[in-house]
Amino acid sequence: MGKEDVRSTLEKVSVLKVRHADDPLINFEKWKKKYQKTKIRVKKERARAKKPDWQVEREQIDALVSRYDHINARDAVKFSDFPISRKTLRGLMEAQYRQPTEIQRQTIGFALQGKDVLGAAKTGSGKTLAFLVPVLESLYRHQWTAVDGLGALIISPTRELAYQTFEVLRKVGKNHEFSAGLVIGGKDLKTEAERIHRTNVVICTPGRLLQHMDQTAAFHVPVKDLARLSLKDPEYVWVHEGAMFSTPATLEQNFVVCELHQKVDVLFSFVRSHLQKKVIVFFACCKEVQYLFRAFCRLRPGTPILALHGKQQQMKRMEVYKDFVGKKSAVLFATDIAARGLDFPAVNWVLQFDCPEDADTYIHRVGRTARYKEGGEALLVLLPSEEEGMVAQLKDKKVPINKIQVNPDKLQHVQLKLEAFLAQEMEQKERAQRCFVSYLRSVHLMKNKNVFDVFQLKIHEYALSLGLAVAPRVRFLNKAQEQKKNQKGLSEREQSEDTELRQFKAKLRGEAPATEPEPTEQDEEESTAALFLGAACNDDDDDLREVDLLTVKRRDVFSLAEDLGGEDDEFLDMPKGKKVTTLSEAKKILKRKFQVNTKITFSEEGETVQQWPIVQRSAAQQSANEELEEEFSGINVDKARERLKREDQEFDKQEYNRERPASAQDKSDDEEEEEEEETVAYLDYSGDEFDPSTLPDPDKPQKPNTDTSSITLEVSGGESSCEDNDMSPPASKRKRAAHRQPLDTGLSLAEDEELVLRLLGSS
Ligand SMILES: Nc1ncnc2c1ncn2[C@@H]1O[C@H](COP(=O)(O)OP(=O)(O)OP(=O)(O)O)[C@@H](O)[C@H]1O
Fold first, then answer.
1. Residue 309 belongs to a domain with what CATH number?
2. How far apart are CA 38 and CA 722, in angstroms?
3. Which of 102, 527, 579, 688 has the fewest Cβ atoms surrounding its Cβ within 10 A?
4. 82 and 157 share a domain?
5. Which of 93, 96, 104, 129 to probe ligand 1 with, by most ligand atoms within 8 A of CB?
6. CB atoms within 10 A of CB 260
């Protein structure tokens, strides 16, 4: 093909192209296609717009559910990689939760698929969202509404944790329409009861839940499922199972060993050297927090001190919680109510002033710092007697902890200052005493005796370190000590019996007698400990009310001192015969059938002159037949009742004749009746003597003396009815009675009263 041919061909093609673009037929076809597409879309949209919301939502739910089988937790990087509703996703994003943590990644998928999940992960690793997201999704999937009532129940060990979980739920679930309620003690039960049946998610503490289950009629819980409390074929998710340590990697942990009486100084010095930090200090009991919180406030360490413990009002607890959350630097003195689950942001230090009950408690406590990728430090204060046992436990639980020393040069001593405070304030002194006793009690009650041995404590020095002049008396320790001695005595006796037997056998065999065993080191230690306690106990007779109260309460209320078993045995199983208590004395008296509140006066000849309460002499003679019958066939109740009635009547008659003035004996029957009535009233009234019945009843609303018009009908009516029922004699009779001489019955006032009551009863 020549050049000319090529050119003509190209020209033809371009002409064809121009013609094609201008071709109305082709253009129409194109437009028609586009139009059809738009028409279908609009139609669909219109159709969808006509659907009720729930149906649209249903379709969205179905679309989500269809993805459940294909969840790939391993590759999930963002929350949106899971089939989670837009509402929840939006909530998560708004709360700045974008990527799931390890525990969330591994559990959310299973939970969405409807499996029971048992998950465990280190503190601060995000377990809260791991269960809250599936809760929201489950309710959403079931299109739960307010009228459906309770849909999810979250039981939390402490009120603070319940409150915190509630707050997270509110944040993450704010785009859903469910209702949620915080049901914890210390709040108004009535208001809760009114709302609880309309609440979809209830976050509660166990005590309050039981209260509503008992008292709130409208509250219907899935009780059977709760009771079973076992998981159906659960997925176990141990996120950090293979980890080298059970505490967060970003947490640095140390312990110091010091004597009990040095602990307050150590704490004060620590606080003084960490003024810009946020610190939580854990104590063994509320009373310690109560006392040391006040003491430290008085010491003015230079940083805010807060206290959180179970004896505070709920509102106060919330206030302190929020206050501490909002502070940049502060020291929170707390009991273990703050140990589990609470998410205080940016805590730098956790100091355990008292040894935790066990390694798990230790881990929960230190977990209040170094949360979610943050760093933190923890210091454990141990007594020499606690060191070995506790450190071994921690090692067992894979807790990396190092021993460090307290620098004695840096230690600041506060004992003198505390003494001065206590000298000024009686209340503070009492607090210090309670703190002292409570701490000892808490140590005494600890189960692990390898770690906690109250008899190893130098309690006198401890009392001084709290600012007290002397160690208060601690009864339960006295008793425990006695018990210990008795047990020791018993085993010694058993041992000596054994030795005697062995020596006897040896004699029989013609061998030389064995020598006495040497006292062991432990024996010596025990007697030293006993010395410490003994000295402290004898120093002061000022016994603490709290100890008395508790001890007495336990025994008195249930009257089961001998029957009680279990934990209380330590206190109650004292050797019989040695323990002399008011209760045992009272029981002895009862057994001997002594009558309390009785009084018998004898003449010099030994005859009964007067007896209280008055014994009614037998007035009606018992027939010989009756006596005989009773002797052989026991008491015939009906006959006895009849006889008593007769006897009462006879006695009343005799009493009446004895007391009636001679002049009155001849009066007519009618007059006699009236007289008798008056006598009854008269006996209660002793002439010139003060008549208490004339006084206004303090329990009744009083009428103003002057202006009766101001009294409302209701009140005046009530009063008049009260007056009608009054035991005081009517005015006319009182007037007549005033002219009479008081009857001298020869009895005391109390005896007179008793007599009147009898007469009234029989009449
Ligand atoms: N996906 C996430 N992204 C960012 N922060 C998160 C995420 N999940 C949880 N957190 C944050 O981590 C912190 C710890 O979470 P959470 O309280 O749920 O831990 P936990 O495992 O329940 O701790 P504990 O065992 O002490 O109860 C919280 O401050 C929380 O806001």
1. 3.40.50.300
2. 90
3. 688
4. yes
5. 129
6. 22
Is 571 part of any domain? no
Give residue 475's pLDDT. 86
Which residue in the block uniquely carries the two structure tokens 């210090």?
432
Going by C-alpha positions, the residue among 424, 437, 431, 422 that lies closest to residue 469 is 422
- Tell me the best of 79, 104, 127, 172 to mutate to test the pocket of ligand 1, counting ligand atoms within 8 Å of each CB and taking the most: 127
Q: Are residues 66 and 46 in the same domain?
A: no
| Nearest ligand 1 atom to alpha carbon 367 | 26
Same domain flag for 392 and 425? yes
pLDDT above 70: residue 532: no
What phi, psi does 350 have (nearest 5°)?
-120, 120
Domain count along the chain? 6
Residue 576 domain flag:
no
Is the same domain home to 460 and 482?
no
484 pLDDT band (50/70/90 cuts)? confident
Give the distance (Å) from ligand 1 centre to CA of residue 446: 31
What pLDDT is stored for residue 346 in this prediction?
95
Instruction: Identify whether the C-beta of residue 656 lies closer than 8 Å to the C-beta of residue 690.
Output: no
Question: Given a cut of 90, is residue 612 above it in pLDDT?
Answer: no
- Choose between 586 and 621: higher pLDDT: 586
User: CA 485, 487, 490: angle at the middle one, nearest 5?
Assistant: 110
Query: Which residue has the CA at smallest separation from atom 27 of ligand 1?
Result: 341
Distance, CA 127 to ligand 1 centroid (Å)? 6
Point out the domain boundary residue: 465, 496, 531.
465
User: Residues 449, 479: one domain?
Assistant: no
**Strand spans (E) along 353-458:** 376-382, 402-403
ipTM over 0.85: yes
Pocket of ligand 1 (CB under 6 A): 97, 99-101, 104, 121, 123-129, 341, 343, 367, 371-372
Cα of 231 to ligand 1 centre, how many Å? 24
Per residue in 655-700, pLDDT (tens digit) is 555 544 444 444 333 333 333 322 222 222 233 333 333 333 333 4
Write out the two tokens for 285: 């009991």
Whether 587 is in a domain gets the answer no
Residue at 345: amino acid letter: P
- What percent of the chain is modeled with pLDDT above 70? 60
Packing angle of the helix pair 384-396, 359-366 (nearest 10 deg): 80
Give the residue, 414 or 15, on which the prediction is more confident.
414
> In angstroms, rounded to a whole number, what is the distance separating the alpha carbons of residues 736 and 288?
69
104 CA to centre of ligand 1 in angstroms = 10
Residue 202 parent element (H or E): strand 201-204
Q: Are residues 120 and 201 in the same domain?
A: yes
Distance, CA 128 to ligand 1 centroid (Å)?
Answer: 6
Q: Is residue 579 part of a domain?
A: no
Work out which ligand 1 atom sits closest to the CA atom of 128: 18
Residues 513 and 497 in one domain: yes
3-class DSSP assignment, residue 538? helix
Domain residues for 310?
A: 251-465
Q: How close is the Cα of 157 to the center of ligand 1, in Å?
A: 17
CA of 373 to the centre of ligand 1 (A): 10
- Positive or negative, the CA dihedral 20, 26, 30, 33 is negative
The alpha carbon torsion through 294, 296, 298, 304 (nearest 10 deg) reads -100
Q: How far apart are CA 97 and CA 496, in angstroms?
A: 72
User: Ligand 1 centre from 63 Cα, in Å?
Assistant: 30
Mutation probe of ligand 1 site: the residue of 104, 128, 172, 336 with most atoms within 8 A of C-beta: 128
Both 652 and 712 in a single domain? Answer: no
